[in-house]
Write a structure and sequence with these properties.
Blueprint lengths: L11 H10 L7 H13 L6 H17 L7 H28 L5 H13 L3 H12 L8 H9 L6 H14 L7 H13 L6
Helix pairs in contact: 1-3, 2-4, 3-4, 4-5, 4-6, 5-7, 6-8, 7-9
Length: about 200
Amino acid sequence: PPELSILDSCSPSQLEGLCSFLQLPTCPEPCLVRFCSWLLALSPALSYTSAAILAQQLFLRRVLSLTQPPSRHLMAALTSFCSKYSRPFCRVLVAAVLQEPGEGAEQTKLMCELVEECLEPHSVQLVLSQVLEVPLSEKLLPVLQAVLGRQEVLPPELLDLLVQTLCQQAPAFATSLSFAKLVTAVLTVCQSQVS
C-alpha cells in the first residue's frame, strides 16, 4: 500500500509509536508475513534506522520468547525481512540473542538457520564479528560452526580474531566436543589462510 511510504518519513520515536498503535509487535503471524512482503516491495527501501526499529518491533519479543521452533509463518516473515534488511536485522536481533542469558536453544537454532540459509555473505561476517565480541559459550559454538559452514572467505582481520579467540578460549573448552569440531572446521575451511 502507498501509505507505507510514511514509515521512512517518521522519526525513530514516531515509528515506534506507529508500530505500537498498529499493534505490530503482537499482530498474528500471518499478518506479519503479509506486512513483511509489503516492506520488500517498498521503493525506495527503508533507511537503516527505520529498518532496525522495525526489526526490533516486529521480531525481538517473538524471537526472545521462543521455547520451540518458530512457526512457518514466523520463519517466512524473518526470511523475507532478512532478504532485504539483513544488516539492521543482525545489529538488532543477533545482538539481543547474544546478550540473552541462559541456554536459548531455540534462539541459537534460529540464528544457525538464518546464517546457513538466509543471510548475505557480508551479514554472515557481521554475525561472526558480533559473536566474537562476547565471551564464548557452548551455546554460541553452533553459530560459529554455521558461519564456517557457509565456506565464505573471511577477511584476514576477522579470521585472525576468530583464531585468536579460539586459542584464548581453548582451556575453558578442553572437554567440549563442539569446540573440537569447531577448531577442525576452522582448519579445514580456512586452511589456506591459517598457518
